[in-house]
Amino acid sequence: MVRAEHRPDLSVDEFVDDTIKNNPSWLRQAFADKLLEEMGRLQTRYCSLESVGDPEMVHYLRARFPGEFFSVYIEASLEKRLEHQMIRKDITDIEEAGRILVPKDQFKENFWHMADIRGIADVVVENSSTLDEFKSKLGELLQRHQIP
Q1: I need a labelling partner for 27 at 20 to 30 A (CA). Which of 12, 59, 125, 133 fits?
Q2: What's the rounded Cα separation, in Å, for the pair 86 and 76?
Q3: Tens digit of pLDDT for each residue in 95-140?
């Protein structure tokens, strides 16, 4: 949404890459401002952000929302993630799932430094079991943080 308002001529990847390199503090603030705006529009106090890849964004959100923001890193084996990819994309070929997933993984590792994200996460949740077990772990996490 921030990109659409400020640089609709760029792809999301181009916008993020350019802005992280040239004006990261502006991007972090603009993102957080837009997040609050959307949460207000949706009349919600809680949200989940997938793939907040910039370690500095995690630090920024913690500082901006002390006591309200926590970072969860969901860890799963490549095998389990390929299985999830096959389900998400409704495909039966594990090779095809790999052609989709591996480039995303490489981008996350090379650009976002995902190992750094895992290292600064408040909570690491292992997701290599059944969906019901994973949901149970997330339910416990929400209870622990008093999120309905």
Answers
A1: 125
A2: 15
A3: 999 999 888 888 777 776 767 778 888 889 999 888 899 999 999 9
d(CA 117, CA 56): 9
The set of residues, in sequence order, having a beta carbon less than 8 Å from that of 36 and lying 6+ positions away, is none
Alpha-carbon torsion angle 132, 133, 136, 138, nearest 10: -100
Strand pairing category for 123-126 and 72-75: parallel
Statement: residue 56 has pLDDT above 90: no
Q: Nearest CA to 50 among 95, 135, 114?
A: 114
Q: Could you tell me the residue ranges of all domains in the chain?
A: 72-148
Please state whether the predicted TM-score (pTM) of the whole model is above 0.70: yes
CA distance 97 to 84: 9
Burial status of residue 67 (CB atoms within 10 A of its CB: 0-12, 13-18, 19 or more): exposed
Give the integer Cα–Cα distance in Å for 34 and 21: 20
Question: What distance in Å separates the CA atoms of residue 50 and residue 14, rounded to the nearest whole number?
Answer: 19
- CA dist 4 to 7, 22, 30, 124, Å? 6, 18, 12, 32
